[in-house]
Amino acid sequence: MEIQSFNPPVRTLMGPGPSDVHPRVLAAMSRPTIGHLDPAFVAMMDELKVLLQEVFRTGNPLTLPVSGPGSVGMETCFVNLVEPGDKVIVCRNGVFGGRMKENVERCGGQAVMVEDAWGEPVDPEKLEAALKANPDARLVAFVQAETSTGVESDARALAELAHRHDCLVIVDAVTALGGSPVLVDEWGLDAVYAGTQKCLSCTPGLAPVTFGERAVEAIRLRRTPVQSWFMDLNLVMGYWGGGKRAYHHTAPVNALYALHEALLMVREEGVANAWARHRHNHEALRAGLEAMGIGMLVRPEARLPQLNAVLVPDGVDEAAVRARLLERFNLELGAGLGELAGKVWRIGLMGYASRPENVYTCLTALESVLGEMGAHITRGAAVAAADAAYREA
């Protein structure tokens, strides 16, 4: 078999991630590689921490990008904060709450589940009932932005409940960070993890995390060693902390260049402006879809602007639609997961992908393919509806 250099097709990525990467970020990755302990690289690491603090809206000193995807960020939070025998209340309203449960159990903890329907936000009343029934719980874990359903839960309210019952919180903000408010200090979030491949317009492979004072103290007072050597923050901070840097692992140098550039772009735009951009493009997409006759899974007040769970019209083969969109328009949409498989498309408007030309591309391509397949939609109205939404914004 002859193998040549790989040249990927040019796609428009409007699924659940990765999202389109900004050309500035791709260019940053191509800069010369230097050593991970080079003084110039260490200086850039310090800037990265500042830029991450800005987007997380926190002054937490323990804020850094973990070398690995968002799942490694998740594990970093759990392995450092959960010890054998700990009781952890886990809120599950989609796929990623289930992954939290598995992390708790792999750490030797006991997961107490608070269940909500897929497409519904976490119910604070159910969490409060679980906290009252489990006064020995140490932690509460929940997903702020559930990527599998496009629903956003009230992180501030859930954190306040947890703290009222002397629990720390672990928050999944993988799809939230950079696309909708994540106010770590204002909301009192103790440990938060995210990913670079969604609303930050960066490549996959890094996981921003931040830990507040209460979480750092809990890690310092652990009774048992952290079960993961690689993710033990006591060791990682020897590399990412101030002063003389101790070798821990060979950092992904060029990927960190990319994240630095991506975060610099968020600073230039203004993080609040980035939130507004995601909201404006969401409203235009929603208006176009509804004009076409296509509905949304999540009720309006709980929808994520950056991840839209769109109901597949009756009688439509959703996988065939996605395949045709990819083949004819180089447009990638996401499938439903778990109990939503075959029932929804997940349309991402994240980071660099959150721009009007992508909204118009998606509406036009989807209308074309659905029309060809005989779906019961209204043709010719979507673009005008999106135009009207942009004018009103």
Can you tell me about this structure?
- This protein is α/β, with parallel strands linked by helices.
- It folds into two domains: 23-268, Type I PLP-dependent aspartate aminotransferase-like (Major domain) (Aspartate Aminotransferase, domain 2, 3-Layer(aba) Sandwich), CATH 3.40.640; 270-392, Aspartate Aminotransferase, domain 1.
- The chain contains 14 helices and 14 strands.
- The chain has helices at residues 23-29, 39-56, 70-81, 95-106, 124-133, 155-164, 184-187, 213-220, 233-240, 253-269, 271-292, 318-329, 356-372, 382-392; strands spanning 12-13, 62-67, 87-92, 110-115, 139-143, 145-146, 151-152, 168-172, 191-193, 206-211, 307-311, 331-332, 334-335, 344-348.
- The strands form four sheets. It has a seven-stranded mixed sheet, with helices on both faces.
- β3 (87-92), α4 and β4 form a beta-alpha-beta unit.
